[in-house]
Amino acid sequence: MAAALAAALAAPLALVLAGCGSAVRFGPPPCLPAPLQVTPSAPARGGAITVSSPPASCDLGYSDGHSYSVILAAAAAIEGTPGPRTEPVEAEVAADGSFSIPVAIPADFPRGDAVVIVTGSPYDECGTDGTGSCAGYAATLSLR
Fold it and tell me: What's the whole-model pTM score?
């Protein structure tokens, strides 16, 4: 009797536990751009960096005229406190998701950890449907 009861409870319990810890998603995973590349990785203040991304491995659905907004922010600005940020630079993005744009680093920008933040991509929509979240479209660097 105990074995029959255990077997009867095992299947429903397995189904319930299989869904724990993850959101239910239907359809294919979202198409996201390729990772950002920032060169050089340790630039000097008063210089410039090049922010770029190779083509995405999927169809982002971009049409002619799509653009990203790119800023450089001191790490303190990301951690919730006001901090220095550059004015946004608009980057023209190819239909395949690739782009490359120079970003000037102000001479008075603080030394240390900084982050390049890109908006205008599918990363902006991550988590808005209640199924999860993602880190965003960004890359870190260290300013000399």
Answer: 0.73
Distance between CA atoms of 89 and 50, rounded to whole angstroms? 12
One DSSP character per residue, 16-56 reads HHHTTTS----SSPPP-PPPPEEESSSPPTTSEEEEEE---
The kind and range of the H/E element at 66 are: none
CA dist list (Å): 117 to 85, 102, 107: 10, 14, 19
pLDDT tens column, 6-21 = 344 334 333 333 433 4
The string of pLDDT tens digits covering residues 76-108 is 666 666 678 899 999 999 999 999 999 999 999
Length of the chain counted residue by residue: 144
Contact 35, 53 (CB under 8 A): yes
Write the single-letter amino acid at 44.
Answer: A
DSSP summary character for residue 13: H
Domains of the chain: 31-143 (2.60.40.10)
CB-based contacts of 54, cutoff 8 Å, min separation 6? 34, 37, 98
Q: What pLDDT shows up at residue 46?
A: 95
139 with 51: CB under 8 angstroms? yes
